[in-house]
Every structure is written in C-alpha cells, then in structure tokens.
Design a protein that fits this description.
Chain A is mainly alpha-helical and about 425 residues long. Chain A has 17 helices and no strands. In chain A, helix 12 packs antiparallel against helix 15, helix 15 packs antiparallel against helix 17 and helix 16 packs antiparallel against helix 17. Classes of the chains: A mainly alpha (about 425), B alpha/beta (about 375). At the A-B interface, helix 4, helix 9, helix 11, helix 14 and helix 16 of A face helix 1, helix 2, strand 2, strand 5 and helix 5 of B.
C-alpha cells in the first residue's frame, strides 16, 4: 500500500552510521561492530543463525528444490496475459520502439553534456559499456533469465532487435547538433509514446492487456500523468487565491485519506451505479484514472515540501531581475524544489509500480500476479503447492524494475548534486 | 497580481487538458458501443432500437441498462461473463491465455446461443466478495462462477438464479488409512476448512446433528490446508465434493492415499445468475443451459450433430432448428432459430463439457447425470 508519507530528502553527505576501519584486521572489525558487548554478541549469534538458515533454505529452494516448470510453461501468460498471439507483433514493435527512444534520449543528453566543456564526462566505448552494465545489471540479469527460460527463438530475436535499436538511437541522439533545443525531442517522444499506446490498442480492447505488460503500462502511463497534475496541485495549494487553495487542499486530503484498494474496487464494481455502463471506460482506463487521482495527491504533498525548501530570496531575486511569475516558477523555483525531493518522488513512483498489482487483485485484471495465481490452478500444476515458485518469479520481476528505478534516481541525484549545494 | 493571474491561466489550461482526456475516454466508450450497434442493425432482421439522434442515445442506453440485457448483448456482440481465473476444473486461465473450464464452457454456450459465436465472450475474473455487486452494477451480463443458489442470495442479492449447471454438495475427505468410514465415526476429530465460506458452519451443524464433538480449523488458502493435512494437524478435510475430488486427484502422495466419505451434508446447486427483473435475458441464458442437457438426452454431440440434421425424429429436427413440415419453430425466446445447433456444434452437450473438465478431477456424474440415468438433469421439452 502507498502509505509511506513523503520524507525529506535523504542527505548523502551524512556520516555513515558505521564503517569498517580501514586499517583494522577482520577480528577487530568483528569485535567493534558485532561483539561490542555481551548483549551485542547474543544478538549477533541469534540473528546471524536465523539469517543464515533462512538464506540457506531460500537458496536451496531457488536452485535445488524449486520446480520451475510452471514458470517456464506460463512465461507468456505472466508477461503478456491473454494477449492474442496474432497481435504479438504490436508488442514487439512497441518494445523495439521504446528501446530506440530510450537510446536516443540517452545519446541526446550525453551529446549535450559532452558539448558542454565544463560538464564533459565522456567515457571511452568500453568504459561506457561497463558503466551501463553496472547501472542496469538487475534488468540485464532478469532479461537474460527470461530468455533462458523461453523455449522459442522469437524472444531472443526481439531482445537482439531492441539492443540494436537502442544502439542506433544512441548514435542518432549523439549526432544531433549540440545547440539544438530539447523541445522538439520532448514533443517527438510524447508523440511516439501516444502512437505506441494507439498501436497496442488498435483493434484490441483495453481489457486484453495483461501480465507484466499491463503492470508496466499502468505504471508508466500513470506516472507520466500524475507528475504534472501533482505539481500543479502543489502550486495551487500555495496559491494566494483561496478558491484554488481550498480546491487543491480538499482534493489532496480526500484522496490521501481513502485506501487505494477501496478506490479501485469502487471503480471496478460500483461505477455502474453512477454512470451508465455503456458510457463507462474500460477497466484499464479506470485503473489509470484511479492511480493518477490517488498518486497525484501524494506527489502534490511531496512537491509542496520541495517548494517550501526553496528560500524566498530566490523568488525575490527573480523579481529583482525583472522576471515574470511563470519563469520564476518554472525556471527558478520548480527546478530547485523538485531536485530536493527526487528521492521521495521516486519512492512514490516505485510504490505506484508495485501497487499496480492491486489493480489486478481488485479489478479482475490478469496482471503478473493474477497470472501467477491462475497458473497454479492449471491441470498440470494444481494442488502441488507451486505458489511459492510463481511468487518468487513475480517478486524478481518487480524487484528488477524497482531497483533499476532506484539506481537511476540515485544517478540523477549525483548528477544534479543533490545534497551538495 | 498579474503573476497570479498567469498562474491561474496555466492551471486553467491544465484543467482543460485533463477535461479533454476524460471526454476522449468517454468518446472511446461511445464509439466502442456504437460501432457494433450499427453492425447488429445491418445483420439482424428484428427491429433493433434504431440509432436515434445523439441526444436520445443516452436515454436508450439507460433503459437498456435497467432492463434489456439481451438487447444490450446483441448490440455489443459480446457476452460479459463473470467467472474465475483459478478454480480447478471450473475456470482456469491457461498458459496460452485462453480460459478453460466447466463454467467457461457454459459462458460459451450462452454466447453461441445468443450470438451464434461461442468465442464472443469476455471473461471477467471476479473475487467471491465482489461477484453480486458486479452483477448488480451491470459490470457483467451473467454470473457463472461456481455460485450456490440459496434463498437469501436469490432474495437479497438482486440476482435471479437459473437452471443449475452443477449439483454439488459438501463432503468430507480423510486419509485412507484412518479407519474412518463415515462422518459419524469422527467424534473428537479435527476438521480443516477454508475460511470465509459456509463450509465451516455446515460441518458444525452436521456434528451437532449427529451428536458428536469435533474441532473445526479454518485456513486462508487450500495450499495451507493441504500442508496442515499432510502434517497431521487435521483428521478430516471438508469442502464441496467437486473441490475435494480435484484436490484428491492432484494429492502429492497419490489419490489412493485419501478417501472421500459417502456422506454429503449440504446441498450446493451451482447455478448461473442474472440481474433481477430481466426476464428476456434470464430465459435466453436458461435455454442455452437446457440446450446442452437436451442434446445429451437426444444423444447429440458436437461430433455427430450434423448427422442429426437429416434425422427422422421431428423432435430432434425442431430442436436443431431444421424445417419440419415447411416451418421452423421460433419459441419466441429472443434466440436465433438455430441457437441449439450452435451450442452443440461449437461447445458440445452437457456430458461432453463434464467429461472434458470435471471427469479429470476424478468426479463421477452422480447427481449430474441425466434424469433417466438417476441424476437430476432434466430439460423441459423444446416445442
């Protein structure tokens, strides 16, 4: 559940709570950190034993006793749900297209930084590969695992195509002249994203979305929509106009005060009591609307915290320079405010990504978790207690996605110098 | 002041954009429902409610929502069927994304009867707690979800239950070497059940009726009961007989290590349900179910149905929608004349559906045999 309140930006400059003394031997380190007192020793032994046993049993389960046939045979159900086979090419096009866009953005921003002599951190080709590997290893490992589990050649070709597309996009992005503004790129990416959604949906009902594709789409679309809305709500809550303030406050307090799963259930089964079913949008759209309504309230409070952290002197300095209010907000206040709350924002986005499983549970959409549950009832697998295997697989996928988001946000923080200025 | 007015303008722009998004989703919904309606208008010779001006469309839709599910289904070209994704034998999502199971096949039979296409079904996975709300709010057209027909559900849930497609009952499973031959032998034993069902109360009632003492342990999931049972924490395992058979057939130590006692101590007729006050749709669903039963009574299967089109028996010809004495029978149920033929050829008769999905659970026909075989299945005559 998305209940964790936004916290202030972590300060990476804080001194670490403990660190191995660089000069001491292993035994002094052990003594200092794990066996400082008699109580410490008891806690270390008891906790260490429990952790070791649990870890051993988990590893034994994963590598020895786990029966992974259920995952292997249901891979397409887990990843794409009930997606019709004759429409799979749409997914392939979108995956390759996404890789192209991601590569292009990466190359474009890297190219711009390289052109700026003060910020140039250009790496040689090999170092760049290592850098990319260290950043994206959870994704790489997961994709490699998925490819190892598949029985057909198709996914391998798709993965190869995606890599080629990413590299091509990267080179194209770097080739863009440095002086060019980012606006056409942003517009182009937005347009391509909408085209991708249209392509996924043309001739298919929203309800045929399923599996991991559904979780990822729900999360991506909801994050893209809830962020601007949340920022506007935060600005409105600090507005001088009482009506804006009341509306925004009312909205935020309403949606922060109700449980997400309750909203999803309402949207699923009770919408028909309010508007005619023929006018109601499909379930996926409903889920997106609920996620956006709910998360934008949290985003608004996080961003408001960021806004409060910007000293009033900044605004006054802008005014003194003759800037009008909108540039003051968009060029002075918001960049600083949002930079300060990146960890909390990303935390909220990760939370949203994981909460997409609630849409599966509450709305009867067959998402990754729903597919995993369904597979344990199939004739070949039922009654054998295989839920553990399927859950481990589901958790791995979510962990890979969430951890990658977290790593990338940390990288962004370092780049922007959060906590250093 | 000007600064704030500009901020206001920005906000307004966003609100407008958000509004545009909302209206575009409604537009989608409109076109979704309008396009099939046009198709239906072209192909069907019955007088469909014609597409009126835009202003009246909403009114027509509202009326459909309150009453004519049959018309709404014909217009949409798809039956929205509330089922499960993970109920062994009855409704299971397969690894290729298709839905297979006993309940799923009855959804297909309804679609075949009403729309002539067994694949024109949208399966909607419902949790136990949501199923009646989904029916009431119009989220689904029909509920075929292993649901017991009881008086209070029929009266209080806004649902009308129809011809049961499966007669189930609560039973008791014990270890084969336990020496227990019937529930009356179970004095002082522990019975494990799934929580949140009527199973728990039924066991207690049965123990009280027999005048014996016993403990009832509730568990969240079937897997947990299985573990407890294997660990020896439970002497008996109680659930619907269909469920017990499925669990027994897949038991790790083999089905022979378990025995299902002959006692059946509750009646669980599982029946499709539709919204109250919608007679036309209820009849359509009912006769789709009867078609599967009647076909088995006649001995018609999906494999041999075409041979029966030239049958000598006028009852069979009438049932299959073939002309008899220069006329076909339209009983006025709102179904196409060849509805029964479509059900049998695309889905099969009751026995075929049972053999495909329920027999592998290790369950005999029992009450679900035809009436002349000692079961409870009986279709009213089609004439």
């Amino acid at each position: 559940m998305t209940d964790t309140a936004p916290t202030a930006a972590d300060q990476p400059t804080d001194p670490p709570l403990w660190s191995p003394s660089p000069s001491g031997s292993v035994s002094t380190w052990l003594k200092k950190n794990l066996f400082r007192s008699r109580l410490d020793g008891v806690v270390t032994v008891v906790a260490g034993t429990i952790i070791l046993i649990a870890g051993f049993r988990f590893l034994r389960f994963v590598f020895v006793t786990g029966r992974w046939q259920i995952v292997r045979e249901n891979l397409s159900l887990y990843l794409t749900g009930s997606w019709p086979e004759e429409h799979l090419w749409r997914l392939v096009v979108v995956v390759v297209g996404l890789a192209l866009i991601a590569g292009f953005i990466g190359g474009f921003s890297a190219g711009r930084i390289d052109d700026d002599p003060s910020r140039a951190v250009s790496l040689a080709g090999r170092d760049r590969l290592v850098d990319l590997g260290s950043r994206l290893w959870p994704l790489v490992v997961t994709v490699a695992l998925l490819l190892a589990l598949t029985t057909t050649i198709g996914p391998l070709l798709v993965a190869a195509g995606a890599i080629v597309a990413a590299v091509a996009g990267n080179m194209a992005g770097r080739a863009v002249p440095g002086g060019m503004s980012a606006v056409p790129v942003v517009v182009g990416v937005l347009f391509l994203t909408l085209a991708g959604i249209w392509l996924l949906n043309a001739g298919l009902s929203w309800n045929s979305w399923g599996g991991m594709v559904l979780n990822l789409s729900l999360a991506t679309i909801s994050i893209a929509l809830c962020f601007p809305i949340g920022v506007l709500l935060a600005l409105a809550r600090r507005s001088e106009y009482p009506i804006l303030r009341w509306l925004s406050t009312g909205y935020i307090e309403l949606f922060r005060g109700v449980p997400l799963i309750g909203l999803l259930l309402m949207a699923n089964v009770a919408l028909g009591f309010f508007i005619p079913n023929s006018l109601a949008p499909g379930k996926v759209v409903r889920a997106i609307v609920i996620f956006v309504l709910f998360t934008s309230a949290y985003i608004a409070e996080i961003v408001r915290g960021g806004l409060q952290s910007v000293p009033p002197g900044q605004i006054e300095a802008g005014k003194a320079n003759g800037l009008t209010p909108i540039p003051i907000i968009t060029r002075i206040v918001l960049p600083q405010a949002i930079r300060n709350v990146i960890p909390a924002l990303v935390g909220q986005f990760i939370s949203l990504f994981k909460d997409t499983t609630l849409a599966g549970a509450a709305m009867g959409l067959t998402d990754l978790l729903g597919g995993a549950e369904a597979s344990t009832a199939q004739a070949d697998f039922r009654g054998q207690g295989l839920i553990a295997e399927t859950l481990v697989f589901v958790l791995l996928i979510f962990w890979a996605g969430s951890y990658t988001m977290s790593r990338e946000s940390q990288r962004l923080e370092t780049k922007l110098g959060v906590g250093e200025r | 002041m000007t600064s704030m007015s500009k901020l206001l303008a920005l906000l307004l722009a966003i609100v407008l954009a958000a509004g545009a998004c909302t209206s575009s989703t409604t537009d989608n919904a409109n076109t979704d429902s309008a396009a099939p309606a046009d198709d239906a208008g072209e192909t069907s010779d019955e007088g469909e409610p014609s597409d009126d001006a835009d202003t009246e469309e909403e009114v027509v839709q509202l009326v459909q929502d309150e009453g004519g599910t049959l018309d709404a289904v014909l217009a949409a070209g798809v039956v929205r069927c509330g089922t499960r994704d993970a109920l062994p034998g009855f409704a299971v999502l397969q690894n290729d994304g298709t839905h297979e199971g006993f309940d799923n096949d009855f959804c297909r039979a309804i679609a075949a009867a009403v729309l002539g296409d067994a694949d024109a079904v949208e399966f909607i996975d419902l949790e136990t707690a949501d199923r009646f709300t989904a029916l009431q709010s119009g989220e689904i057209d029909v509920l075929v979800r292993n649901t017991t027909w009881t008086a209070s559900r029929d009266g209080g849930e806004g649902a009308t239950f129809l011809q049961p497609n499966f007669y189930d009952g609560q039973g008791m499973m014990v270890a084969a070497d336990s020496g227990i031959a019937s529930v009356s032998d179970m004095d002082g034993t522990v019975v494990c059940v799934a929580s949140g069902t009527t199973t728990e109360g039924n066991v207690a009632n049965e123990f009280a009726r027999l005048g014996i003492d016993g403990e009832v342990l509730s568990f969240e999931s079937t897997d947990l009961i299985q573990e407890a049972f294997i660990a020896g924490r439970c002497d008996g395992w109680s659930s619907d007989v269909s469920q017990l058979s499925g669990l027994r057939s897949a038991f790790p130590d083999g089905p022979d290590s378990l025995t299902i006692l002959p006692d059946v101590f509750s009646k669980e007729p599982l029946a499709p349900a539709v919204r109250d006050g919608d007679t036309a749709w209820a009849q359509a669903v009912n006769w789709a179910v009867f078609a599967t039963i009647q076909a088995e009574e006649f001995g018609i299967t999906s494999a041999n149905v075409d041979d029966f089109l030239t049958s000598e028996n006028p009852s069979i010809l009438t049932f299959l929608g073939v002309e008899v004495d220069g006329a076909t029978l339209d009983p006025g149920l709102g179904l196409p004349v060849d509805a029964n033929y479509q059900v049998i050829s695309q889905v099969g008769n009751y026995g075929e559906i049972f053999d495909t999905h329920i027999a592998p659970l290790g369950l005999a026909r029992g009450e679900n045999a035809l009436w002349f075989d000692g079961g409870l299945l009986y279709a009213p005559p089609y004439r």
